[in-house]
Specification:
Pfam families: Creatinase_N (PF01321), Peptidase_M24 (PF00557). This is Aminopeptidase P family protein. Keywords: Aminopeptidase, Hydrolase, Protease. InterPro entries: Creatin/AminoP/Spt16_N (IPR029149), Creatinase/aminopeptidase-like (IPR036005), Creatinase_N (IPR000587), Pept_M24 (IPR000994), Pept_M24_MAP (IPR001714), Peptidase_M24B (IPR050659). The protein is α+β, with helices and mostly antiparallel strands. It folds into 2 domains: about 160 residues, Creatine Amidinohydrolase, Chain A, domain 1 (3-Layer(aba) Sandwich), CATH 3.40.350; about 210 residues, Creatinase/methionine aminopeptidase superfamily (Creatine Amidinohydrolase, Alpha-Beta Complex). The chain has a 6-stranded mixed beta sheet. A 5-stranded antiparallel beta sheet has the order 13-12-14-17-18.
Length: about 425
């Protein structure tokens, strides 16, 4: 089942370029994001990762990884549903996609042949799983005596697969194959992440200009969500967080109907989704045109410094443990996470990193988000997005901090000094 060949822009050289500073529509007068190349390169990375293992066939049930392998855009929701997007990738072969939108996909996903796109796999009933296995074997051959990598597992799924394939060995296909393929991003993936971040910053700015004493957290979030959606965001990085006043410490990671008061610290943590890739941005601003307390400034400064100190040690050859240690102890439960078609993927930065450190590589992308707070003063969480370069790190988050809260500007901070300290932009919409 051959994949339809896609064209390559032989003149495009994206090395050291930043397509997020350009428009997102395809044009004929400059190089922009090349989605055809991204599809091709992602699939090849997965094939290479599979070829480097003893796994014969990969079963992919995670919707975000189905998109990584095929480009299938699924409709996202608040819960994972087995069978909504299924891909089988045989070693040395091409992916096969099962989806409830198969007619739409066959008509519009020209880079895949029609016999690579199948009607939805019924995983809601036991008999449906067994019939799906029969269909898989009819397409890729008998799996008896073969090793199959599976990216997500449940007791029901395990039982049905083992009953249907008693002579097949099952191993981890998520960390063993998919995460190896995804750990270093292609140039087009990085541009998707940058564009998602641009959308996120626009939404943050709109929310901040709306925020003022007397409005509710949920109203602030509504402005951010509307802005992201209007810009073309497919979904959001999470339910999104607006936490104010007492909800900043202990930190409550969701948005409520609390009325924000003058002088409150407000944590806004949001992320847009562009072309399947997620932005993620967190800042803390003081609500209202008031001066923060010295205690609020000191809490903010500790987190602000930890954020940039962690970036200082980020480079190829360093480890996630090195980065975590640079921000410690200003960490909530983890310091950060990778980002891609899944907003939370390796590398991770946790207290456990020191026991099994991961070496950082050029092209890895991740978000760092230290935290500190007390119930008496309030809490602060700040977040920047990072790409590891050949000799260091690119911080591609450019939205400024609340200058009323910054005591000492860090050398890596290129945003502070660009906003109005005496007349903050909070509530100026």
């Amino acid at each position: 089942m051959p994949v339809c060949e896609v064209s390559t822009n032989q003149f495009c050289d994206t090395e050291e370029s930043d397509m997020s500073d350009r428009g997102i529509m395809p044009v004929d007068w400059e190089d922009r994001l090349d989605t055809n190349r991204m599809l091709r390169e992602r699939l090849q990375r997965a094939k290479d990762a599979l070829a480097a293992t003893d796994v014969d066939v990969l079963f992919v049930f995670r919707p975000e990884d189905a998109r990584y392998l095929t480009g299938y855009r699924h409709h996202l929701g608040p819960a994972y549903i087995e069978g909504n997007a299924v891909v089988v990738l045989p070693k040395g072969g091409e992916p096969v996609l099962w989806t409830m939108d198969y007619e739409h996909c066959r008509k519009r996903m020209s880079w895949m042949s029609k016999d690579q796109i199948m009607p939805r796999a019924n995983f809601r009933e036991k008999i449906g799983m067994r019939r799906w296995v029969e269909q898989v074997e009819s397409l890729v051959g008998s799996l008896a005596g073969k090793t199959v990598g599976v990216d997500i597992w449940s007791p029901l799924l395990e039982g049905e697969l083992r009953d249907a394939l008693p002579r097949t060995s099952f191993v981890d296909g998520y960390h063993g194959v998919m995460m190896r393929a995804k750990e270093v991003k292609t140039e087009d993936e990085k541009d998707c992440l940058r564009i998602a971040n641009v959308m996120t910053e626009a939404a943050f700015d709109a929310a901040l200009r709306f925020m003022r004493p007397g409005v509710r957290e949920c109203e602030v979030l509504a402005v951010a969500w509307q802005t992201m959606t209007a810009l073309g965001s497919e979904w959001t990085q999470c339910q999104n967080i607006v936490a104010s006043g007492p909800y900043t410490a202990p930190y409550r990671r969701f948005t409520s109907d609390r009325i924000i008061r003058n002088g409150d610290l407000v944590i806004i943590d949001i992320g847009a989704c562009f072309n399947g890739y997620y932005g993620d941005l967190t800042r803390v601003y003081v609500c209202g045109n008031v001066k923060p307390t010295q205690a609020q400034r000191e809490v903010h400064q500790k987190v602000y410094t930890a954020l940039f100190d962690a970036a200082d040690v980020t480079k190829p050859g360093a480890t996630n443990a090195d980065v975590f240690a640079a921000a410690d102890p200003y960490v909530l439960d983890n310091l950060g996470h990778g980002a891609g078609t899944n907003p939370w993927e390796p590398p991770f930065f946790s207290p456990a990193s020191k026991d099994a450190p991961v070496t950082l590589k050029e092209g890895m992308v991740f978000n760092l988000e230290p935290y500190h707070g007390t119930e008496e003063v309030g809490g602060v969480r700040l977040e920047n997005d990072h790409i590891i370069t050949a000799d260091g790190v690119e911080i591609y988050t450019t939205y400024p901090f609340d200058e009323r809260l910054v005591i000492d500007v860090h050398d890596r901070d290129v945003t502070t000094g660009r906003t109005r300290e005496t007349v903050p932009i909070v509530g100026m919409g």
